[in-house]
Every structure is written in C-alpha cells, then in structure tokens.
C-alpha cells in the first residue's frame, strides 16, 4: 500500500461547521466554533510543520465520536480549519478524492484520524457524471 504523505490524529470531540451569524454589527462565526478550530489547528500544527500540499490529494478520514451532526458539516469544519496548513486550498482540483468513515465512541474518546495521499488519478475530477 502507498505510504501517506502525512497522518494526523486529532484527539477532540467531533463538531460541525458553524453557520455565520449575521447581526447589525456585521457577520461573524460563533465564539465556540472558533475555539474548537483553534484547538484543532494547534493539534494539526503539532503534527505537521511542512509546506501545504498543492495536490491533487486523496484523503482518508476516520471519525470516532458521538452520532450527532451531519458528516458533511464535520468534514467542512475540518477542511476550513486545515486549509492553508495541510493543503494550499480545499477546492476540488486540489482534493478530488475523499473517503470518510464514522464509528461510535464516547465523547471523551473522540478522534479525527486523517491520512493524506497523493491522488493516483490526476484527472479524477474531470470524470463525467452519468
């Protein structure tokens, strides 16, 4: 099997991407969400100090935690947090392949396990939809 370019293990409860809050004073992300991102970013930077990958990349993401929230919003939270640290941008031409799995775990045993590979098919994002 191909060796990953990087492996990251984040030990913290799963969380979903927050919706921006709009007030008369402007638009902002909730404080709790920004605090979770800060902790996740800290753990990522402890484990990876290289330059961001430019892709194309394949990600394998294994989520362990409580069964609350939508998986796409959890991945969105991770992508937003890891952007510019693990990869140059999270657009589809940089990350054309993502495989995500989830398994139940107690909140205090929650984790995000990420493996980053070079994508084998440089043109995978050009495949026609049927």
Q: Secondary-structure blueprint of this entry?
A:
Blueprint: E1 6-10, E2 21-23, E3 26-28, H1 31-47, E4 57-65, H2 71-82, E5 97-104, E6 111-118
Parallel strand pairs: 4-5
Antiparallel strand pairs: 1-6, 2-3, 4-6
What series of H and E elements makes up the topology?
A: EEEHEHEE
Beginning-to-end CA distance, first to last residue: 30 Å
CATH superfamily: Holliday junction resolvase RusA
* Biggest sheet details: 4 strands, mixed
CATH-assigned fold name: 60s Ribosomal Protein L30, Chain: A
Count, helices? 2
**Spans where pLDDT lies below 50 across 5 or more residues:** none
Explain the overall architecture.
Helices cover 22% and strands 28% of the residues. The longest helix is centred in the first third of the chain and has 17 residues, at 31-47. It is α+β, with helices and mostly antiparallel strands. It has two helices and six strands, in the order βββαβαββ. The chain has a single domain (6-15, 30-122), classed as Holliday junction resolvase RusA (60s Ribosomal Protein L30, Chain: A, 2-Layer Sandwich). α1 (31-47) packs across α2 (71-82).
List keywords for this structure.
130 residues; alpha+beta; 60s Ribosomal Protein L30, Chain: A; two-stranded antiparallel ribbon; 2 helices; 28% strand; globular
